[in-house]
C-alpha cells in the first residue's frame, strides 16, 4: 500500500510557515493538502517572544519616561508610577490575544491546512518523523518547506551558563524589574530592550565588542543614537571583551577587558543579545540532501530552493543577512508559489530594517561605505533633524536622514534615518529603490507638511541647494 502523501509539509509554525501555508492554499484554490509541523507555541518568535512583546514594552516604557519630563513650555511633567508585574501581565495578554486572532483563528479559513504538534526530523528526502507528547508518526510529502526559525545564542564566556542570564526569549519571564542591567550586545535587540529598561528606571550598561553600536547602520546614525541614549542615562563600553562572569554577593559580576585593562561590573541581571542560531541542528538535513552553511543556516537560491529541488526553506533558518518577520513571510510566500509552479524571487535589496529605539533607526538599500567600495564614488546628502519642521514641532530634533544615490544615474539606492517614527516612512525609500526613482522624482512628489517623511524630500532637495536656503514647502 502506498503511504498517505501530503502535497506540502511545512516544518515550523511561525511567520514564514503561516505565510507559505496561506499562499499555497489560496494558489491551489484550497485543493493542496498541507500540514504544518512544529513544537512550541503557534506563531513563532515574532508574536510570542519577539516583535510584539518587545514593542509593547517599548511603548509602555517610553510613555512612563517622557511623561515624567517636560518637553513643551507650560506643559508640566507628572510623576507616573510603575507596577512591573502588571506591565508584564499586559505583555502576556497582548501576546495571547494576537496569537489567537492572527494565527489560531486564521486557520479556520483554510480547512486544507492541518497543524501537527511535535518535533520533526528527516528520515529521507520524502519523509519526516514527527515525535509529539502522545504520538510518533512518519509523514510523507511531495514537497517540504523548512521554516523552523532561530533561537538566541550566547557567546562562550567563562562562567556565563553557571551564573545565569536572560535573552530576548526569556526576558518575558521576569517577575521583577532589575535595578541594574548589563546588556551584552549593541545591536537592535540589545538597544531596544536596554532603552526600555532604562526608561523603566533600571541602570543599564551596554557592552559591545565592535567600535560602535548598530554596526550595520551608517556611522552618523550610530554616533547620534549613542549620544541620545547616553543623555538618557544608558552607559556604553565599546571595543570590550567579557573575560568571565561570576556570582558575587547575590548579584552577577562581569570581568570586562578594555584597552585600559580589566574592570568589574556588578549587576542584578545580564541580558545576552549577541545573535541567533538556526533551529536546524536536530532536523537531520543531511538525510534529505539539504546543504547548510558553516553556522547551520540553510543555503537557498533566490527562489528559496535548497540543494534538494523538492525542499524549500524560509525565515530565520535561512542563510542571509537580515532576520525579519516581514522578510520571513515574503520568503514563505515565494517558496509556496514556486512549489506550485511559479518562478518568483525574493528581492533583498529593497528590504528595510529598523531598530525601535526612540528615536528609531530605519534603513534600506546601500550605505555610503558600500557604494564607495562598489563604485569608488558616492552621491550622498545628510539632513539633520533640526532642519525638519515637524521635528521642532514635536520637540525632538536629534537625528538625521541620509540619502544615498548612484553617483552616475542619480537613482536612489539607499535611505537611512534616525528620527521618531522612522519606521513609518522608510517604505518610501524602499519603493524609490525598487522602482528606480531619482532624487528629482522625490523632489517632484508632493509631501504632506509638516511630517518627518518630508525630511526625505529635503535630503533630495539638498542635492540642488543647501537646506538653509529653503523655506517651508519650497520646490
UniProtKB/TrEMBL annotation:
<comment type="similarity">
    <text>Belongs to the class-I pyridine nucleotide-disulfide oxidoreductase family.</text>
</comment>
<protein>
    <recommendedName>
        <fullName>Mercuric reductase</fullName>
        <ecNumber>1.16.1.1</ecNumber>
    </recommendedName>
</protein>
<dbReference type="GO" id="GO:0016152">
    <property type="term" value="F:mercury (II) reductase (NADP+) activity"/>
</dbReference>
<keyword id="KW-0521">NADP</keyword>
<keyword id="KW-0476">Mercury</keyword>
<comment type="subunit">
    <text>Homodimer.</text>
</comment>
<dbReference type="GO" id="GO:0045340">
    <property type="term" value="F:mercury ion binding"/>
</dbReference>
<keyword id="KW-0676">Redox-active center</keyword>
<dbReference type="GO" id="GO:0050661">
    <property type="term" value="F:NADP binding"/>
</dbReference>
<dbReference type="GO" id="GO:0003955">
    <property type="term" value="F:NAD(P)H dehydrogenase (quinone) activity"/>
</dbReference>
<feature type="domain" description="Pyridine nucleotide-disulphide oxidoreductase dimerisation">
    <location>
        <begin position="351"/>
        <end position="459"/>
    </location>
</feature>
<dbReference type="InterPro" id="IPR021179">
    <property type="entry name" value="Mercury_reductase_MerA"/>
</dbReference>
<keyword id="KW-0479">Metal-binding</keyword>
<dbReference type="InterPro" id="IPR012999">
    <property type="entry name" value="Pyr_OxRdtase_I_AS"/>
</dbReference>
<keyword id="KW-0475">Mercuric resistance</keyword>
<dbReference type="GO" id="GO:0016668">
    <property type="term" value="F:oxidoreductase activity, acting on a sulfur group of donors, NAD(P) as acceptor"/>
</dbReference>
<dbReference type="GO" id="GO:0050660">
    <property type="term" value="F:flavin adenine dinucleotide binding"/>
</dbReference>
<dbReference type="InterPro" id="IPR036188">
    <property type="entry name" value="FAD/NAD-bd_sf"/>
</dbReference>
<keyword id="KW-0274">FAD</keyword>
<keyword id="KW-0285">Flavoprotein</keyword>
<keyword id="KW-0560">Oxidoreductase</keyword>
<dbReference type="GO" id="GO:0050787">
    <property type="term" value="P:detoxification of mercury ion"/>
</dbReference>
<feature type="domain" description="FAD/NAD(P)-binding">
    <location>
        <begin position="7"/>
        <end position="332"/>
    </location>
</feature>
<dbReference type="InterPro" id="IPR004099">
    <property type="entry name" value="Pyr_nucl-diS_OxRdtase_dimer"/>
</dbReference>
<dbReference type="InterPro" id="IPR016156">
    <property type="entry name" value="FAD/NAD-linked_Rdtase_dimer_sf"/>
</dbReference>
<dbReference type="Pfam" id="PF02852">
    <property type="entry name" value="Pyr_redox_dim"/>
</dbReference>
<dbReference type="InterPro" id="IPR001100">
    <property type="entry name" value="Pyr_nuc-diS_OxRdtase"/>
</dbReference>
<dbReference type="InterPro" id="IPR023753">
    <property type="entry name" value="FAD/NAD-binding_dom"/>
</dbReference>
<keyword id="KW-1015">Disulfide bond</keyword>
<dbReference type="Pfam" id="PF07992">
    <property type="entry name" value="Pyr_redox_2"/>
</dbReference>
Amino acid at each position: 500500500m502506498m503511504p498517505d502523501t501530503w502535497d506540502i509539509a511545512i516544518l515550523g509554525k511561525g511567520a514564514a510557515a503561516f505565510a507559505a501555508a496561506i499562499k499555497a492554499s489560496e494558489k491551489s484554490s484550497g485543493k493542496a493538502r498541507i500540514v504544518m509541523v512544529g513544537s512550541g507555541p503557534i506563531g513563532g518568535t515574532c508574536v510570542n517572544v519577539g516583535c510584539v512583546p518587545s514593542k509593547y514594552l517599548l511603548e509602555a516604557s517610553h510613555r512612563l519616561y517622557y511623561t515624567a519630563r517636560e518637553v513643551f513650555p507650560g506643559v508640566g511633567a507628572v510623576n507616573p508610577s510603575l507596577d512591573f508585574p502588571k506591565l508584564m501581565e499586559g505583555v502576556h495578554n497582548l501576546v495571547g490575544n494576537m496569537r489567537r486572532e492572527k494565527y489560531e483563528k486564521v486557520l479556520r479559513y483554510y480547512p486544507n491546512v492541518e497543524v501537527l504538534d511535535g518535533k520533526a526530523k528527516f528520515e529521507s528526502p520524502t519523509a519526516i518523523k514527527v515525535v509529539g507528547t502522545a504520538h510518533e508518526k512518519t509523514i510523507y510529502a511531495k514537497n517540504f518547506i523548512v521554516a523552523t526559525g532561530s533561537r538566541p545564542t550566547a557567546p562562550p564566556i567563562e562562567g556565563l551558563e553557571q551564573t545565569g542570564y536572560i535573552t530576548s526569549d526569556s526576558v518575558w519571564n521576569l517577575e521583577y524589574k532589575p535595578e541594574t542591567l548589563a546588556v551584552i550586545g549593541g545591536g537592535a535587540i540589545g538597544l531596544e530592550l536596554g532603552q526600555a529598561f532604562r526608561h523603566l528606571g533600571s541602570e543599564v550598561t551596554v557592552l559591545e565588542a565592535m567600535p560602535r553600536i548598530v554596526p550595520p547602520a551608517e556611522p552618523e546614525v550610530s554616533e547620534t543614537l549613542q549620544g541620545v541614549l547616553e543623555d538618557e542615562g544608558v552607559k556604553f563600553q565599546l571595543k570590550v571583551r567579557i573575560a568571565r562572569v561570576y556570582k558575587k554577593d547575590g548579584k552577577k559580576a562581569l570581568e570586562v577587558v578594555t584597552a585600559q585593562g580589566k574592570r568589574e561590573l556588578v549587576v542584578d541581571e545580564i541580558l545576552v543579545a549577541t545573535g541567533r542560531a538556526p533551529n536546524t541542528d536536530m532536523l537531520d538535513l543531511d538525510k534529505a540532501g539539504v546543504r547548510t552553511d558553516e553556522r547551520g543556516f540553510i543555503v537557498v537560491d533566490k527562489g528559496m530552493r535548497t540543494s534538494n529541488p523538492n525542499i524549500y526553506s524560509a525565515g530565520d533558518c535561512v542563510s542571509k543577512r537580515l532576520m525579519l518577520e516581514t522578510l520571513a513571510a515574503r520568503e514563505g510566500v515565494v517558496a509556496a508559489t514556486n512549489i506550485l509552479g511559479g518562478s518568483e524571487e525574493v528581492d533583498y535589496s529593497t528590504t528595510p530594517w529598523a531598530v525601535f529605539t526612540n528615536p528609531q533607526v530605519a534603513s534600506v538599500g546601500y550605505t555610503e561605505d558600500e557604494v564607495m567600495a562598489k563604485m569608488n564614488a558616492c552621491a550622498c546628502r545628510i539632513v539633520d533633524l533640526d532642519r525638519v519642521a515637524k521635528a521642532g514641532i514635536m520637540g525632538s530634533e536629534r537625528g538625521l536622514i541620509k540619502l544615498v544615490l548612484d553617483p552616475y544615474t542619480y537613482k536612489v539606492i539607499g535611505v537611512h534615518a534616525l528620527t521618531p517614527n522612522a519606521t513609518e516612512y522608510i517604505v518610501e525609500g524602499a519603493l524609490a529603490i525598487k522602482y528606480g526613482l531619482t532624487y528629482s522624482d522625490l523632489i517632484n512628489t508632493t509631501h504632506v507638511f509638516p511630517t518627518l517623511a518630508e525630511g526625505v524630500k529635503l535630503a533630495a532637495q539638498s542635492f540642488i541647494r543647501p537646506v538653509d536656503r529653503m523655506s517651508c514647502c519650497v520646490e
